[in-house]
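Morning run. Coffee first, then this:
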Amino acid sequence: LDAPWSASATSMLTESYHSWQIDTLALAEATGNQPLSSLGMFLFRASGLVERFSFDPQRLATFFLVIEEGYDDAVSYHNRAHAASVLHAMHAVLQSSGLAKRVEPAFAWGGDASRNEALLKVACLVAAAVHDYEHKGLTNDFLVNSADERALAYNDQHVNEHHHLAAAFAVLQRPECNFMA
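And here it is:
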């Protein structure tokens, strides 16, 4: 998988692929504080998603790096190590439960079940990676009660969640980050 990270990071990633266990703080240390982008690239490559959909690897790497930069390390919980942990948990659920295969019939886009299952994996992994993108470490109630600009932009409704998704889609629209183009 032509890994650009250290041997210890490669070992952690390889061991975690068929496991529920991963130490994302140790992964952050082994990858120069890039646990999310390292894990994201590893999972997309090891799962065959890059090849399956002919994703541009450089744009995919840039997408994950930009998303990772949107996780502020000053935020004690909603940071890049947390995002990597959620990404790994989503992978483990998909890997161990066959969830994508079970859900695929409900989203049958054409007759290629295998392709649809892989597409669901892409959607789930990207969703996990961006789920707290640009989180300020503040609750929705705090943002609403303090009349934060995000609360105003999203009409006081699910402020954090709307922002995480809208901001992540904005990243995906950037040419250098649109790995699906």
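The chain has a mean pLDDT of 94. Good start to the day.
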